[in-house]
Task: structure prediction
Amino acid sequence: MPAMLMNFLPVVTRMCAVFAGVALLGACEARLEGPPAVSDLKPGFAQKHMIAAAHPLAAKAGLTMLRDGGSAVDAAIAAQMVLTLVEPQSSGIGGGAFMVHFNATNGAIDSYDGRETAPASAHPRMFLDTQGKPRGFFDAAVGGTSVGVPGLIRMLEMVHKDHGKLPWHTLFAPAVKLAEGGFLLSKRLAGILERERYLRETPGAQGYLYHLSGATKAPGSVIKNPALADTFRQIASGGARAFYEGAIAKDIVAAVRGAAKNPGGMRLDDLARYRAVKRKPVCGPYRSWLVCGMGPPSSGGVTMLQILGMVQDFDLASMAPAAPAAVHIVSEASALAFADRNAYIGDPDFIKVPTTGLLNAGYLRARAKHISLQKSGGRRQPGAPGARTAFTGAAQQTDKGHSTTHLSVIDGDGNALAMTSSIETIFGSRLMARGFLLNNQLTDFSFRPDHRGQPVANHAAPGKRPRSSMSPTLVFDDKGDVVLAIGSPGGSRIIGYVTKAVIGALDWKLSMQDAVDLPNFLSRNRGTEIERGTALEKHRPSLEALGHQVKLISRHSGLQGILKTSKGLQGGADGRREGVAYGD
Result:
């Protein structure tokens, strides 16, 4: 490791000159027939600009903005508004997001926190039953109590003021047109709606996503949402203030407080007080690259950088992609990182998070010594990166199934972003207001407010942001050029999904699509998880022989990435969902 670090110092020095102000912690058209039937939309490769998003209509909206001279941020906003409509199970203006952004003009890397906050009525024991025990997840998630103050619109307005080129109101045009004219219900969304247990009871969903009888609409049905079109128009003309104050805010509060199940205590003041936060990204070296992600209150960036920091002394490049030895090494590092994640990371505005200590090169070297090539270490304990003020607790790690979405953009000027957004679990709280679903992000708080007599750092409190695992990520070469934008949905598994794709692209030199398509494997410090129905299943005996407790997981990732090569931009869209990468 020391020799590797010495070799890396010139790279870091050059990067520091490029990435001024970034702390190196630790050293509008839309067709009704569905996907764009346009001959010049060629998925997967581009020379000038590209967007990778979770739905073809969203990717097309973003590409329209890029073609009109818009920035990466303009494309992301247009795509996200369309995703609110066509992917309601995953994200939308009723939820929140994190974004990591690169400005090619001055080399600045910024991260934007649009995470939801708890209303003033929140308290540490809000998810305990009358006996003082944690409630069942869906007992707490469905209804008004779980709804956090949405952060997406405030964050997008902030980032647009910093990096937008096109007028704000024009970015809503594709979504308005689709909401009014309709889009075709995909087979995937129809299947999710058919399996959904709670949304059918939501008045706003009856006659919209479901027939008035309660029956699921068939794939290919035209879905219109005039209420959402009107909401988009108000935000387009009035900005974020139109969302957080006035009629829209009143309807959000009414939906939360008037919920038939678990009515919440959100008030108009909670919405009016919400502010997005511009934070320093967390960045660290990985071999000859610089990897930057989202810091707390997301655990994604720190945990992923810990994994990469622990494995970079192992020669993964000499191993076949996702070979048993590689799965073993990465999973062992992941278990160690997740032990730290659960012990230390929460909202930095409420607790002291030892981010610098967690990413310190010496600390990661010491943690890496616990990785044996001959045997799994089993369940790991947290290390000691620095003093902590509270224990975060092993919070319930929901898989979030089909919820959350990610998009990546690189524009013609070289600006890049990775943005992950979510309404938490599938269809969020199942409450609707003005045509959009409200989140249930408050269930990302630890249900238990204390652990062995100590307060749990990730407990609920007024104004607090729950810990997340969203991992929007940008990677830079030793010249300071962005080479990779990547991210994924998937609950706490997001960290493993993104780490796998980064290693696939950087160490195994896979194309962006092949890196995305790699079988998923990870450890959240409670067994080693491998993707069901993939080639990894045949390696299960080898992993178990090393002492791994192997579990099979379903295909819930939704990686969307862009890889910059000497020949142009490669897009990768996760075939486990409906994503696509479009560019010119």
Remarks:
- The longest strand covers residues 96-102.
- Residues 1-40, 388-400 have pLDDT under 50 and may be disordered.
- The CA atoms of residues 338 and 524 lie 6 Å apart.
- The longest helix spans residues 324-344.
